[in-house]
Design goal:
It is a single chain. This protein is an alpha/beta fold. The chain has two domains: about 190 residues, Rossmann fold; about 130 residues, no CATH class. The protein contains 14 helices and twelve strands. The strands form three sheets. It has an eight-stranded mixed beta sheet with strand order 1-9-8-7-2-4-5-6, with helices on both faces. Strands 3-10 form a two-stranded antiparallel ribbon. Helix 5 links the parallel strand 7 and strand 8. Helix 10 packs antiparallel against helix 12, helix 12 packs across helix 13 and helix 13 crosses helix 14. This is NYN domain-containing protein. GO terms for molecular function: RNA nuclease activity. Pfam families: NYN. It comes from Stackebrandtia nassauensis (strain DSM 44728 / CIP 108903 / NRRL B-16338 / NBRC 102104 / LLR-40K-21).
Amino acid sequence: MSLVRSDCSPVVARRYAMLIDVGYLYAAAAEVLLGATSRREYKVDAEKLINTLITRAADQLPGGELLRVYWFDAARDRVPTVDQRVIAAMALVKVRLGNLNSRGQQKGVDAMIRTDLEQLARHGAISEAILLAGDEDMVPAVEIAQAYGVRVHVWGVEPPYGTNQAERLLWEADTLDEISAEFCKPYFTKLGTAAAASAKIVGAPMAEPEPQQPSPASVFGGRHSVAVTMSAADALEEAEMARPSFVRSTTGDKFGQDTVTGIGEYVAHKWILTRGRENIADLLPGPTLPTVIDKELLVEAEKELGYSLREHPGARIWVRDGFWERVNREFDIEG
């Protein structure tokens, strides 16, 4: 139920934006639903959650036009996770990423929210803003947006007790709305002990480079760990050294199953190196990949082969099989 101030008359909406602090949304919902304190303890069906939030906004601002959803999250070195890449491909959704430090703390997210809200108001891009956040740092941006004539509707997640939003932020809002635990429940799933433990593993495997014509088995069989401080550039260099020689010598001819499967393994190997185990763990248990990730896998494979797979559905299956063989081996999953 909406908690709208008695002194606020109904809003006639024109164009509005939704600005969502994902860290607040996830933490607050996970606490009230699951008693979870770490993001490694649960998974979120973000696509469905976002679409439901959009529907809720349309119901509360009838006749309004959604400009877009701003999805403020964080990632290590600002390298997007699998879930974030899927969200970024959604229509009318813009992912903004702050940095996630080694202690799991978000850096730069609040500043991005404030900047976007102020800029949208300053340039007259919106007349209404829905802000799903809880931090008092949002107050100056709310005040500035209101000074430009924007009505700011602050949404919060039902707390298990007390409040999970700053009192000053609630004071400054034009209207308030509380998202219930029941509303969030369909989109949050607590992970089992094994899955949560797997998500906590940090590091990535590194294959030993072979100087002369390495086989896929020799390239992908190694299980040595890489220091967590390895940069993306260093990881790509490692992946390049581990690249099978048959990839380099491709001439554009059609390839057999072993070669194409090896390409799928190589792409998975590179992904694990550059994005880390925690990111790849988001794909498990498989074998179906999110559409946006599946497309990227096939594009990467085609680049390595120098050959289009659009007319070869069997070869696309081999690429996916190779990808999952590598991932399953990395996570000790029996096929």
